[in-house]
Design brief:
The protein is 13% helix and 40% strand. It is mostly beta strands. The two termini are 27 Å apart.
């Protein structure tokens, strides 16, 4: 499984920014933990394809965001499958208008949320 987590940043006031996260409610080992907006693919995809999918999902408004960075590849072996993925950092000029179950949390407080180990691997080496 390929996970592409979108780190969506939005400056809602000068000197402060928010990051979109959501609580996983579905059944599974990560139930109740937080994650960033996720695009899951069956195979490795290009960042262009990931951004197009995010626009299609109405998570991004075409021309109203900036791709900041793409992480190295992260992997985690679960008991029954291998998860591979990347973290795509995006600065929004306009918040998405669609209905989502996201929480917009202060960027400097993201590290305090309960995330799966896969996401903690990324966060341990990156600061916002």
């Amino acid at each position: 499984r390929w996970f592409y987590y979108l780190l969506l940043e939005y400056n809602d006031e000068p000197g402060s920014y928010k990051v979109a996260i959501r609580k996983r409610s579905g059944k599974g080992i990560w139930q109740g933990l937080y994650e960033f907006p996720l695009i899951e693919m069956e195979k490795n995809a290009t960042i262009k394809n990931i951004l197009q999918q995010a626009e299609k999902n109405k998570w991004l408004v075409k021309g109203k965001y900036e791709l900041v960075s793409v992480s190295e590849l992260f992997k985690q072996q679960l008991s029954h499958q291998l998860i591979s993925g990347q973290f795509v950092r995006i600065r929004l000029r306009q918040k998405p208008g669609g209905s989502t179950d996201w929480l917009w949390t202060n960027g400097n407080k993201v590290h305090k949320q309960a995330f799966p180990r896969f996401i903690h691997q990324f966060l341990s080496g990156h600061r916002f």
